[in-house]
Amino acid sequence: MYGLPKSEEAKARFDPAAGHLLENGRAYRTLKSEAELARELMEAGFEVQDSRLRVNPWWDHVTMTCRSASSQA
């Protein structure tokens, strides 16, 4: 899941400080920026090779192709 929610219903249930969509007061989806997602992957030892965005009416999805940073040595 990528970016900010788009529908009014999802925006009403979004906690921007945490980046969570809430259902019954509990987080059930996390929406992050592409930079935040890439940073998490890099911190976990991966190198992003490609990034593709798929847009939809509610929120967008990003698919990142990665490889282990340790495999480059």
Structure description:
This protein is an alpha+beta fold. It has one domain. Helices cover 21% and strands 38% of the residues. It contains 2 helices and 5 strands, in the order αβββαββ. The strands form 2 sheets. A 3-stranded antiparallel sheet has the order 1-2-3. A two-stranded antiparallel sheet has the order 4-5. Strand 1 and strand 2 form a beta hairpin. The model has no long low-confidence stretch (mean pLDDT 91).
Low-confidence stretches: none
What global shape is seen? Answer: elongated
Q: Strand order across the biggest sheet? A: 1-2-3
Q: What's the helix count? A: 2
Q: What is the CA-CA span between the terminal residues?
A: 31 Å
How many distinct beta strands?
A: 5
Query: Could you tell me the radius of gyration in angstroms?
Result: 14 Å
Structural class: alpha+beta
Summary of the model, kept short:
The chain is an alpha+beta fold. 21% of the residues lie in helices and 38% in strands.
Notable traits:
single chain; 73 residues; alpha+beta; 5 strands; 21% helix; elongated
How are the SSEs ordered, and which strands pair?
Layout: H1 8-12, E1 14-15, E2 20-23, E3 26-30, H2 34-43, E4 46-54, E5 61-68
Antiparallel strand pairs: 1-2, 2-3, 4-5
